Each structure stands twice: as structure tokens, then as C-alpha cells.
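Input record, target 12 of the design panel.
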């Protein structure tokens, strides 16, 4: 099983982490990919070659910056897979906790999911994430770009909107710094984040476009009529208010593939002024999806896109929901337990890199994974001899492949990949020969 991209991503993580013992970094990442465990004790138990104090010192006492390493990791993914078009998503999620003592940035949080078996206010951690929807091998996936643990202490002035605006500014600066495509980029978010402060910041400071949902009764107005006569007083900001509350007012129809199925949509679009954005001109789309009787309202700050494109862009926001589910439940973010913020951030990002590597391997190495499944998992093939490649199958294939690697064999393979120039790593300043790799690592 040849997984050149996987090896190079692991190498970039090892090279970016400022820690003397590079071998322990390699084995920690490999074990996290193989086991998916969020429990540090299971990780130590799986790494039989090292004493537990070695892993403890790497995670608890080392002083490397997980956020800066993650930026290099994201840059590597964009360059390796030649990503040219990106749509960003912002959303938050709650990790439920039972212990109130020593929970890193734990707080009582309002649970918007309204689950019948939980109270409205739960104790847990609030994670805010900015993800990028990218297309690899004709498949759309959500790549975590920034993940932030929100603080609700008495001395904390930041909240979700402020943190989201900072995330967008960081990403905008990151794209410009590395000469990545930063034109015609759209940021999508739900109605909770549809606030003037965030929308204005996306448009003015980052030069991105926004697509979001708001309440159907939001105050939208037609553009004011143009008058040639000069009148006293200030010019009109708003025209007549737009009121859409009946399905018969939706004058256009279209059949569209949304949320995994073809749906007949009824919609109506306007270029209008939004009062909650202090008179900013936006494109509004009133829409009914499928057989639903509910009318939804979507808004875009890009006036040039069509209503169908706005609905497709907003559909991409849903990619972050299964991403949260996989990270929390399958890759065991809910089991991560550290007593310090720095150690929590380090282990969180280590697991995040293991997840992304597994996800990318399942897309970019489907032929190798199918060969592995035919040999070890023949019952997973359907009657038409097709295999649905899941994260579980990919994890088993990677476990077999990475289990055969030692650190020295890993370095040898990486050097051969770089020497063949099979991947564009020149901008990442990687080493070109085996001796320099060993001396550096």
C-alpha cells in the first residue's frame, strides 16, 4: 500500500514541531491514526516501545505551538492536493462533560439541540471551528482550518462573534501571506452568527462574501426609487418593505440536488436593503425546499450570484455537522481529558491531524484500500462488487501499513519521495537527501 501523501503529511508535522525527540512524535501520530483513542492512557499502553514519562513530557511539558504547526499542516494539504477553490464554514459545538472540577474551560452552556433527555443548560466545553470545504478527487470534504476552545470565565471578553471575526481575519492574512487564491471566497454560517458585526467584518476587512440564513421576518426593503428632482432633506435609504409570508408569492421553480436528494424548490429573489446591516445592499432568497410548508430566507452579500448558487453555497455549511460528529464520537474528542489548556490544545491538534490524514487517505488512495478490503474484508463488497470506503476501513488499512513502519524506514521513504519530485514540496523547504534528513530529525 503506497501512501506518499500520508507520509509527507506526517513528515511535515514532525518537522514543524519544535521538539528534540522526533521519533516519539512519529510514533504518537501513528498510534493515534491506528487506535482513534482520545484517552492518553490507551495511547501510552499502545506505545510499548516507550516509557510513559516520555509521552507525558512530550504532551504536558513541551513548549511547541500547536496552532502554528496546524497552519503549516493546512498549507501542506492545500499545496499537495492543489486546492484552488475554497468555501469556509463557521459553527460551534458542545462537548458534554460530567466532571465540573478541572474541566479545561468548562462552563454551563445553553444546548440549542433541545434533546429530550438533556436539560436546556449543560456542563461542557464549547468548541468553535472554522472549516474549509474543498474538492479532492471529485469529492467534497470539510478540512478543519481553525479550532478554538471558547472561554467563559469572568475576565474573558471574547465571545463567539468576536472569535469568529478574528478567525476570518487570520485566514485572510494566511491566504495573502502564502499567495493562495483569496478572491471570490465565501464564508457560510447559520442564523446565530448572522450579526452585523461579523457580516461587516467579512466584507470590509477580509474582502470575502457571506452566505447565511436569517429569520423570515427580517426587515428587508426594496432599493429606494431613483429621483431626478432635487428635494430637501437626506436621501432615502430604504424603499418599500418586502413581506413574503405565503407560498403563492414564490414565483420561480427549480429542481436541485440539495442535501443528498433531488428537491423541487420554489423561490423568489430580490436585491434589497437589510436594516439589521444598516442599509447594506444584499441579495435575498425566499425559498421553500421540497414538500416543506416552511419558507426560509437566505442572504448573500455577493450580488452577482444567482439564487440557485446561493442555495448550493449554503448547503455546504452542512458539511461541518458530520465533521463534528466524527471528531467527537468516532475520533473520541469527547474522551480527551487534560488538566491544563496548553496540553489540551496539543493533544486536540494531534488527534485532529490524525483524523485529517485518515480522511484524505480514504479519498486519495481508494484503489489501495479496495485491494486491502478484498483480501481482509470481502464481506464489505455489495452484490454489484462495489465498496463503500468508510473511515473504519481506511483506519484498518492504515493500521496495517503504518504498523510495518519504523522511524528509520519512514525517513528513507520520505527522502525517496522528495528526490523523485512526485509532489510539489519545494515551497515547504523539505530536505532533498537522506543524510540531511537524519541530521535534522
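The sequence produced for target 12 reads:
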Amino acid at each position: 500500500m503506497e501512501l506518499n501523501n500520508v507520509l509527507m503529511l506526517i513528515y511535515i508535522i514532525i518537522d514543524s514541531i519544535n521538539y528534540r525527540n522526533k521519533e516519539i512524535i512519529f510514533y504518537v501520530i501513528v498510534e493515534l491514526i491506528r487506535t482513534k483513542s482520545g484517552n492518553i492512557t490507551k495511547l501510552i499502553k499502545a506505545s510499548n516501545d516507550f516509557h510513559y514519562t516520555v509521552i507525558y513530557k512530550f504532551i504536558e511539558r513541551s513548549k511547541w505551538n500547536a496552532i502554528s504547526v496546524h497552519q503549516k499542516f493546512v498549507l501542506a494539504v492545500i499545496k499537495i492536493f492543489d486546492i484552488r477553490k475554497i468555501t469556509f464554514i463557521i459553527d460551534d459545538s458542545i462537548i458534554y462533560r460530567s466532571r465540573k472540577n478541572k474541566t479545561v474551560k468548562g462552563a454551563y452552556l445553553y444546548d440549542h439541540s433541545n434533546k429530550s433527555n438533556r436539560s436546556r443548560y449543560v456542563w461542557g466545553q464549547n468548541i468553535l471551528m472554522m472549516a474549509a470545504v474543498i474538492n479532492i478527487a471529485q469529492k467534497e470534504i470539510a478540512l478543519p482550518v481553525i479550532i478554538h476552545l471558547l472561554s467563559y470565565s469572568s475576565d474573558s471578553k471574547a465571545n463567539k462573534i468576536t472569535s469568529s471575526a478574528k478567525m476570518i481575519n487570520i485566514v485572510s492574512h494566511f491566504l495573502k501571506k502564502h499567495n493562495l487564491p483569496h478572491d471570490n471566497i465565501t464564508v457560510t454560517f447559520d442564523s446565530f452568527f448572522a450579526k452585523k458585526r461579523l457580516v461587516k467584518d467579512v466584507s470590509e476587512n477580509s474582502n470575502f462574501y457571506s452566505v447565511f440564513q436569517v429569520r423570515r421576518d427580517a426587515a428587508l426593503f426594496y432599493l429606494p426609487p431613483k429621483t431626478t428632482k432635487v428635494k430637501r432633506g437626506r436621501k432615502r435609504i430604504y424603499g418599500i418593505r418586502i413581506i413574503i409570508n405565503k407560498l403563492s408569492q414564490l414565483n420561480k421553480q427549480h429542481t436541485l440536488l440539495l442535501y443528498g436528494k433531488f428537491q423541487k424548490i420554489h423561490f423568489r429573489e430580490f436585491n434589497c436593503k437589510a436594516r439589521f446591516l444598516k442599509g447594506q445592499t444584499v441579495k435575498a432568497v425566499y425559498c421553500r425546499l421540497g414538500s416543506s410548508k416552511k419558507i426560509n430566507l437566505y442572504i448573500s452579500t455577493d450580488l452577482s450570484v444567482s439564487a440557485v448558487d446561493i442555495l448550493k453555497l449554503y448547503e455546504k455549511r452542512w458539511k461541518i455537522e458530520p465533521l463534528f460528529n466524527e471528531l467527537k464520537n468516532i475520533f473520541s474528542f469527547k474522551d480527551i481529558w487534560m488538566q491544563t489548556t496548553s496540553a489540551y490544545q496539543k493533544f486536540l491538534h494531534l488527534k485532529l491531524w490524525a483524523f485529517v490524514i485518515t480522511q484524505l487517505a480514504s479519498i486519495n488512495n481508494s484503489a489501495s484500500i479496495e485491494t486491502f478490503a478484498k483480501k481482509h474484508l470481502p464481506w464489505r463488497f455489495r452484490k454489484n462488487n462495489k465498496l463503500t470506503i468508510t473511515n473504519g476501513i481506511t483506519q484498518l488499512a492504515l493500521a496495517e501499513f503504518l504498523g510495518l513502519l519504523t522511524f528509520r524506514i519512514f525517513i528513507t521513504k520520505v527522502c525517496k519521495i522528495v528526490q523523485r519530485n512526485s509532489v510539489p514540496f519545494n515551497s515547504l523547504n523539505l530536505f532533498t537527501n537522506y543524510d540531511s534528513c537524519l541530521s535534522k530529525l
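Confidence is low (pLDDT under 50) at residues 422-441.
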